[in-house]
Amino acid sequence: MPHWLEPPRQLRHTCGLRANSHGAVMFVRLPGGEFPSDYVPLLRWLIFTGVSAFGVALAWHFGLIRLMLAGDKTHISAVICALYVLASLHCLVATAAISRELNSGQRAFSLVRNGAARFRVVGDDVVIGGGAKDETRLPPGRVTGHIRNLVLKAGLQGGTRFDQTLLLGGLADALRRPHQVGAFASDALMKLGLLGTIVGFILMLAPVAGLDVADRASVKGSMGLMSDGMAVAMYTTLTGLVGSILVQTQYYMLDGAVAKLFALTTDLTEVFVVSVLDRTPDRQLR
Fold first, then answer.
1. Is the domain of 42 the same as that of 32?
2. pTM score, two decimals?
């Protein structure tokens, strides 16, 4: 290949896609060097929500949503829609936070992997490097916080071999805490849909008690009330099922991002941090 067709070396190493043990991530040139930028979880949420919003727009265009709101006299469908919007916003915030943690964790992984002969805790920060002139602070985040806890635990144990199982368990619980809201929201949407079904059947069967078969007007009015009750049952059930499925899908994608962050933390600490702390005689804490 002629030399004048080759891309500049700096551009070749500045951007691109690289595959590692934690999946494909995009590398960008930052002031501190070359670090990965991973916003795939947030991008997936935006794509999924965009497709869902397009479906809602089509339903509104053809009058299906207006028909649902007009047919549901109990307004349970509107409550389900509002709860779905709140759950989606919560998932957005959690997904953005996990994306930031993944970026911070990938930067910490790159810094530690390049050669960290020593770990020091300075306040709330973790400093790595071989000497005073060659030290780097790890970016703040849950991964760095976990490394800080490991360094503190290693220093307090006085050089004996330690196990990070309990710390990893605590980190996993902290990362999965937002999922409790998602599980509650999905279950609440399903239960509200079932509640609407029961209320709709009650409204549908209520006119039967006072039905006079000989009176045509009474029969006609009872049929209208029964139709309204059936509409309430069907609309609320459909809205609850669709909302529950969509919320579960969003939090399923969030769970995948959390699992990726936890796997990155485990690989980083087990391979590069614990091994260094085990063979380091002195661990300085400030």
1. no
2. 0.76
